[in-house]
Design brief:
Layout: H1 4-24, H2 27-49, H3 57-67, H4 75-89, H5 103-114, H6 116-120, H7 150-157, H8 163-168, H9 180-192, H10 198-217, H11 226-231, H12 235-242, H13 253-273, H14 280-316
Keywords: Flavoprotein, FMN, Membrane, Phosphoprotein, Translocase, Transmembrane, Transmembrane helix, Transport
GO cellular component, one term: plasma membrane
Pfam families: NQR2_RnfD_RnfE
């Protein structure tokens, strides 16, 4: 099934795929290939069973899921994750266009909960200089807290990584979530192509920076600087690629703002007060649950407002 929108998303992800090889080595590309084969096979089985065509969205789901994994994630865990995500994040709802949750996030959340050690402890250092990771299978593993991901480093020591390193991507982390500048450029491209909702992206940033600024200024030690929080922990990646999924997000303009702000606020709460250093992944899945209700509420309000206006005009006449 050809889908122009999905191809545009894939194009926006190409720079992140190449940067992941540079930062962490060729294993990231091999991991992506294995995940794509597993995901495509899973969808093909269901498509054949129910006489449907395989959608191009499967490639987007596989890429996004892979980009959220640590570089050293065991292949078998990655495979289990994408199979679970496609089946329980999409196929059980009837296939493409009917899913309530983002399949890539369902897959990521499943492996995160089931296999916490390789998903939260085993990180890889970011390569420096030329040729970087292009000359190795995978970069050296992290052995100390000081070399862990920016959010884990902050939670364990209170130290914040350099903002310049966060912008460029010279930090440990998930495969495609380290380079903030490339994610921002991808977001601009998707908005320009009218593929992703700028209201949702902006809403996420408004909700996140608003609540984190208040808590940070109040002296809450669990909450880092809002700027650091935006650039670290996959917030931008989630805002640009995951939250804007047109299937699992609200359809109304007002609903998109509410949805985005909700994600940003929940992310701050999870990061600061829950066991998870990230939080964006769970925030989007929680917001996915409320997306249909948000649209219903917005439409009901519009209908009520329209009826009230009509009644006032009748009284005036």
């Amino acid at each position: 099934m050809k889908q122009k929108m999905m191809r545009t998303v894939i194009v926006s992800l190409i720079p992140l795929i190449f940067s992941s090889i540079y930062f962490f080595g060729w294993r990231t590309l091999i991991l992506l290939g294995i995940v794509t084969i597993a995901g495509l096979t899973t969808e093909w089985i269901f498509a054949k069973r129910y006489n449907r065509k395989v959608s191009e969205a499967i490639f987007v789901s596989c890429i996004l899921y892979t980009m959220t994994l640590p570089p050293a994630t065991p292949y078998w865990i990655a495979i289990i994750g994408i199979i679970f995500g496609i089946i329980f994040g999409k196929e059980v709802f009837g296939g493409f266009g009917k899913n309530v949750f983002n399949p890539a996030l369902v897959a990521r959340a499943f492996v995160y909960v089931c296999f916490p050690a390789p998903l939260t402890i085993e990180w890889s250092k970011s390569a420096l200089g030329f040729p970087g990771g292009f000359s190795t299978y995978i970069t050296e593993g992290v052995e100390a807290v000081s070399q862990a991901t920016p959010m884990l480093l902050f939670r364990d020591t209170g130290k914040m990584a350099s903002l310049m390193d966060l912008l460029i991507g010279n930090v440990s982390g998930s495969i495609g979530e380290t380079s903030s500048i490339l994610i921002i450029l991808a977001g601009v491209y998707l908005v320009y192509k009218k593929v992703a909702s700028w209201q949702i992206m902006t809403g996420v940033l408004v909700g996140f920076t608003g609540l984190s600024s208040i808590l940070y200024l109040l002296g809450n030690s669990q909450i880092p600087s809002p700027i650091f929080g935006v650039l670290a922990g996959g917030l931008l990646f989630g805002a640009v690629f995951m939250a804007t999924d047109p299937i699992s997000a609200p359809k109304t303009k007002e609903g998109k703002w509410i949805y985005g702000i909700l994600i940003g606020v929940i992310t701050v709460v999870i990061r600061g007060y829950a066991l998870f250093a990230g939080g964006m992944m769970f925030a989007i899945l929680i917001a996915n649950t409320f997306a249909p209700i948000i649209d219903e509420g917005v439409n009901a309000y519009k209908k009520h407002k329209k009826e009230s206006k009509a009644k006032k005009e009748e009284v005036a006449i």
